[in-house]
Design goal:
five-stranded antiparallel sheet; mainly beta; 14-stranded antiparallel sheet; globular
Length: 488
């Protein structure tokens, strides 16, 4: 199971991509700042941010650039992740063009976004392929590239509130941020005291982030999910312990795992599980279906408690539908997406080769699981989201890559398939994980990181749909507590 438990990396990527942006330093032009990145007091990385006047395609504009490097250990593997972002905006920080590049473990993915009044034209580029997506901008939505502009004034005042929208290069969607100036207080960073405003950002796919900034817009400190903290530092201080004198921090997968109250003796054979989970669970995470039932129990502030009952069940192959599945209500789970490139000739050809003449959707899905499990090899140091063509070409990856290539192949074969994200039990704790569900007469679970078709009941689902929907569960990170009530 080790190869499958790296979904946490994608969510740290998401936080770096749009949660820890140079928004609060952009009021001073030109500007430059360095920040050290810490978790539980340990140095994890750094960020370098600049804002300057520039030209883009002969148009006067602002150029906001950031470089984010994080080094960590995930289940014993050393992982380095680099993220480079360049955003060109107008004088009001409305985006004109953006490039977002993430690289890790020898893989690289670039997202380019060109903005107009009505839509965003996106390109997703890696070494194997370039795909495109057009994102419509809803009526009445004005995008901004800087959250301070959402406050509607250059002067910060306690009590100010605003809601803005931004383009998320990871989910390839438009998402809201609620901004509120809470109070003013003194903050101490490495012995230097600053009189700062406390500004809260609430983002649906990364949770809350609190920032401390000065009146002139300088970002002093920020705190986000997982205890991830950024503080202002000199360039030398920021890179120290990352590019030089590096000491590996605590294993991030272990740090963010959810400790169980009892040890399950044979988790991969668990057929039924009843478990109480408490934390920043959101209603959309309480997914109930034939396999999983969720009952909400209580709520205290931001903490909610729910009881999840999971029955691994079984499926009789005689009840399988035939290929291709043509049910119109399932058509969205057959369509290609930016990361599930099921219409690509290489994906279609490989799916046809794997499935052959098989007409049973269930047996075809089993063939795809067996092929993915046998041919994709674990490489735990890949800490970026990757399209299915890249996974097919390189044949290495982590759990989300296994899920992405399975879903793309299944959709190409005519089997409606979702990417699923949640937690799974291993070695006394629950770890974040990704797998799939395919409709073969009913929704059936498959986990290609395993060697069998049986998927145990410790797979607890929080999100489902496209590959980008895994980010829906990020607010719960670092908040969960688990109590296993009973198991079989």
């Amino acid at each position: 199971m080790k190869k499958g438990l790296i979904i946490i990396m994608a969510l740290v990527t998401g936080l770096a991509a749009f949660g820890l942006c140079p928004a609060f330093g952009a009021q001073q032009i030109p500007s430059e700042s360095w920040m050290g990145v810490y978790m539980t007091g340990q140095k994890m990385g750094y960020m370098h941010m600049t804002t300057e006047r520039a030209q883009f395609e002969s148009r006067d504009c602002l150029r906001i650039q950031s470089f984010f490097r994080m080094k960590m250990v995930l289940l014993g593997a050393d992982v380095q992740q680099d993220i480079k972002t360049t955003v060109y905006t107008d004088e009001h920080f409305a985006p004109i063009f953006e490039t977002f590049n993430m690289s890790s473990g020898g893989s690289s993915t670039t997202v380019e976004a060109r903005f107009s009044d009505k839509e965003i034209k996106c390109k997703i580029i890696n070494a194997q392929n370039t795909s495109e997506k057009v994102v419509p901008i809803p009526d009445g939505v004005s995008l901004v590239g800087d959250s301070m502009y959402a406050l509607g004034s250059d002067k910060i005042e306690i009590g100010q509130k605003a809601k803005m929208y931004f383009f998320n290069p990871l989910t390839l969607g438009i998402e809201p941020i609620a901004v509120e100036v809470l109070r003013r207080e003194e903050v101490d960073v490495k012995g230097v005291k600053y009189n700062a405003f406390v500004v809260k950002n609430t983002m649906p796919k990364t949770g809350d982030m609190t920032c401390w900034q000065t009146e002139d817009g300088k970002l002093i400190k920020s705190e986000a999910l997982l205890g991830l903290t950024m503080i202002t530092e000199s360039a030398e201080e920021a890179v120290a312990g990352v590019d030089s004198d590096y000491v590996p921090p605590t294993d991030l997968a272990v740090l963010t795992s959810v400790k169980a109250n009892i040890d399950l003796p044979d988790p991969r054979s668990t057929k039924k599980l009843v478990i109480k989970l408490s934390g920043k669970l959101e209603p959309k995470m309480g997914i109930s279906d034939k396999r999983q039932q969720v009952k909400w129990l209580e709520e205290s502030g931001e903490t909610k408690t729910a009881e999840f009952t999971i029955d691994s069940g079984s499926f009789d192959a005689k009840n399988s539908v035939t290929l291709p599945v043509t049910n119109s209500s399932l058509s969205k789970y057959l369509q290609p997406t930016a990361y599930l490139q099921s219409d690509a000739p290489e994906i279609k050809a490989k799916a046809a080769e794997i499935v052959g003449n098989e007409k049973s959707a269930y047996k075809a899905a089993k063939k795809i699981r067996a092929w993915v499990s046998a041919n994709i090899k674990p490489q735990a140091d890949i800490g970026i989201a990757r399209p299915s063509l890249d996974v097919l070409k390189m044949k290495v990856g982590v759990c989300r890559d296994y899920a992405v290539i399975f879903a793309a192949l299944a959709r190409a074969a005519g089997i409606p398939t979702k990417v699923v994200a949640g937690i799974v039990y291993m070695n006394g704790s629950f770890y974040y994980h990704a797998w799939v569900e395919s409709y073969v007469g009913e929704w059936v679970v498959f986990d290609a990181t395993q060697k069998t078709d049986f998927v145990d009941a410790t797979h607890i689902k929080f999100a489902e749909g496209d590959a980008t929907d895994m980010f829906e569960m990020s607010p719960v990170f670092g908040t969960l507590k688990a109590e296993i009530v009973k198991y079989q």
